[in-house]
Design brief:
It is built from eleven helices and ten strands. It has 283 residues and is of the alpha/beta class. It has one domain: NADP-dependent oxidoreductase domain (TIM Barrel, Alpha-Beta Barrel). The strands form two sheets. It has an eight-stranded parallel beta sheet. α1 (25-38) packs across α9 (232-239) and α2 (52-62) packs across α3. The radius of gyration is 18 Å and the shape is globular. The structure holds NADP nicotinamide-adenine-dinucleotide phosphate (NAP). NADP nicotinamide-adenine-dinucleotide phosphate binds next to α9.
Length: 283
Amino acid sequence: MEFVTLSNGVKMPMEGFGVFQVPEAAICEQAVSDALAVGYRLIDTAAAYFNEEAVGMAIKKSGIPREELFITTKLWIQDAGYENAKKAFLTSLDKLGLDYIDLYLIHQPMNDYYGSWRAMEELYEAGKIRAIGVCNFYPERLTDLCLNAKIKPMVNQVELHPFFAQTGAIANMHDFEVIPEAWGPLAEGNHGIFTHPVLTEIGAKYGKTAAQVALRWNTQRGVVIIPKSVHKERMEENLNIWDFKLSDEDMKAIAVLDLGHSEIIDHSFAETAKFLNGWKIHE
Ligand SMILES: NC(=O)c1ccc[n+]([C@@H]2O[C@H](COP(=O)([O-])OP(=O)(O)OC[C@H]3O[C@@H](n4cnc5c(N)ncnc54)[C@H](OP(=O)(O)O)[C@@H]3O)[C@@H](O)[C@H]2O)c1
């Protein structure tokens, strides 16, 4: 495993395990237990995934020393604002059964996220969070936050995979020393990624699968990845990417696959903001 150093000096694993769309407690707990057993140490959850308790249970049962883990969770839109964010953070901490979070992220650039950010800055300064960041902040929002906040975000988690490479957005993150983290690093299975001819052909040279090539490509351009799977053999496959290196030629061949837009979600659509604001996680 390789690590990246965040702007505040905290070391973050370059690969972790995501648990989006695993709301059922028993399945999630088993998946996280399996992920920890095969070697993942970064777990990425969110209040809006409805599985923080299951993640916490798997962490507790694993017996892995807390300092070896890197736990991320996220603040949902409904809980935006200074007071709400402080409350929501404590709820997440309680559900996870932890007394600090390694990385706390604003899940969407919506509602009163400046109020949320001030609360997160204070929690960070109080030592309750080791690093703070955002998700889905496209360049104009990220730039605005970086220019106006007391503490700049250390991470921006956005959709990043060979079909949506976002090289411009990554360059913008680098301008502010923000580390890019990929959600959907396997394009959520879209676009025939697991059998894609270009990725498969490159993989054949190294004895690797198309999925491993896609994941390796992101890490080689400095992007942290958090692939999700509920299958142990796929978890192992996805983690087994640290013993080979794509050539410059391979990297260029993969860069050509970029469609320049997401096939999953477009944050510039009014309908997306309506849909996400309508997603409620509590009364
Ligand atoms: N901040 C945000 O707004 C945001 C948005 C989306 C996701 N995320 C985070 O990012 C994480 C990863 O993204 P994601 O879960 O959306 O998608 P993903 O990791 O790109 O893809 C997951 C899909 O690929 C399948 N899969 C995984 N490895 C495979 C392999 N080696 N071979 C074949 N199929 C494989 C999984 O199926 P099985 O499970 O059946 O194996 C699942 O259907 C999430 O879990 C979450 O933590 C964050």
